[in-house]
Design brief:
6-stranded parallel beta sheet, 8-stranded mixed beta sheet, 22 strands, 2 helices, mainly beta
Length: about 180
C-alpha cells in the first residue's frame, strides 16, 4: 500500500500501542497496523465491532453496536476522521480504502413518529447501511438507515444521504442528490 499524507504523519506512541492492545481484547476483530487515536470509544457491545488491517480511527470517534445483534465492520486501509458517530442497531459496513472526514454521522435506525404515541415510546425502524470500497465522505455528512453507497462514490460536505448512491457518482445536498460523476 502506498503511504498517503495521513499515514506518513501518524505518530505511533506507546499510548497508541496500548489502545490497540486493549481494543484487540474487546472487539470482534482488530487487524494489523490499526491506529486508534485518543478518546475513541467502542460502545455497548464492542464484541460486535470489526476493524480490518491498516484502518485509522481518529480522536473523538464513537462506534456503537447498539444491541447484542448489531454489527459494525470497517474495511482495510479505511480512515475514520475526527469526531465521527457510527451507531448500528442492525448493521453498518464500511468498505476498504474509504476516507471519512470529520463530524460524519452514520446511523441505521430512526424512531417512528406516529401521532397517537409519545415519540420516546415508539420503536426504532432499522435497515442496514452499506458503504462500498474507495468511497470519500466529506465533513458534516449524515447517512441514514437503509442507504447503500456504491464503490468509488463521493458524498459532498454537509449532505444528508437518505437514498442509495450509485458507483462513482458524486452526491451532495440535503437531501443528497446526484451532482456529478468521478471521471
Amino acid at each position: 500500500m502506498e503511504d498517503n499524507q495521513l499515514r506518513k504523519h501518524l505518530r505511533i506512541t506507546l499510548k497508541n500501542k496500548i489502545r490497540l492492545f486493549l481494543a484487540k481484547q474487546k472487539l470482534e476483530s482488530c487487524g494489523k497496523n490499526v491506529y486508534i487515536d485518543k478518546n475513541v470509544e467502542f460502545q455497548r457491545f464492542p464484541q460486535n465491532i470489526s476493524i480490518n488491517d491498516n484502518a485509522v480511527i481518529k480522536e473523538g470517534t464513537r462506534i456503537c453496536s447498539c444491541n447484542k445483534n448489531a454489527k459494525v465492520k470497517i474495511g482495510k486501509n479505511t480512515t475514520i476522521g475526527f469526531h465521527n458517530f457510527i451507531f448500528a442497531s442492525k448493521s453498518i459496513t464500511i468498505g476498504d480504502d474509504c476516507l471519512i472526514a470529520p463530524f460524519v454521522y452514520i446511523v441505521d435506525s430512526n424512531h417512528q413518529i406516529k401521532r397517537n404515541f409519545k415519540i420516546n415510546q415508539q420503536p426504532n425502524e432499522v435497515a442496514s447501511v452499506n458503504i462500498g470500497n474507495d468511497v470519500w465522505i466529506a465533513s458534516n455528512v449524515t447517512i441514514l438507515k437503509g442507504v447503500n453507497i456504491g464503490d468509488g462514490a463521493v458524498i459532498a460536505a454537509n449532505s444528508v444521504v437518505n437514498k442509495d448512491v450509485p458507483q462513482f457518482k458524486i452526491f451532495g445536498g440535503s437531501p443528497a442528490k446526484e451532482i456529478g460523476e468521478r471521471k
